[in-house]
Amino acid sequence: MPHIVVEYSDTLTDAFDRPGFGAALHPVIAKTVDTAVAGCKTRFRRVEEAHLADGAQDLAMIHIEVSILSGRDAATKRELSAAVLEVARAHVAPVPGLTVHTTVDVRDLDRDCYEKHEVVHPA
């Protein structure tokens, strides 16, 4: 925890610095929701086909879903959304003729039902 899922249009494959985004994102999330960077997990999903707005071909999207343990107030979640959006914008290079819609959704994981298991294998 936190779990981050990033869906992005395939037209952004070369413009979206995913490793840089993940490296910059995890400390921001950890600081905002008072957790450890070591617990952050980000998965990227390239979307090969999507219908955006009126179907125009000059549109692309990045949607970031951040799931955190329940109990944070709305102000903290708004702060987190804004911070994630800022990090994302800094890691997408302009693509001439393309409009990019970037969205963030912060969701709660039910603290009473969430389970985690970690196995450390000795070197």
UniProtKB/TrEMBL annotation:
<dbReference type="InterPro" id="IPR014347">
    <property type="entry name" value="Tautomerase/MIF_sf"/>
</dbReference>
<keyword id="KW-0413">Isomerase</keyword>
<dbReference type="InterPro" id="IPR004220">
    <property type="entry name" value="5-COMe_2-OHmuconate_Isoase"/>
</dbReference>
<dbReference type="GO" id="GO:0008704">
    <property type="term" value="F:5-carboxymethyl-2-hydroxymuconate delta-isomerase activity"/>
</dbReference>
<dbReference type="Pfam" id="PF02962">
    <property type="entry name" value="CHMI"/>
</dbReference>
<protein>
    <submittedName>
        <fullName>5-carboxymethyl-2-hydroxymuconate isomerase</fullName>
        <ecNumber>5.3.3.10</ecNumber>
    </submittedName>
</protein>
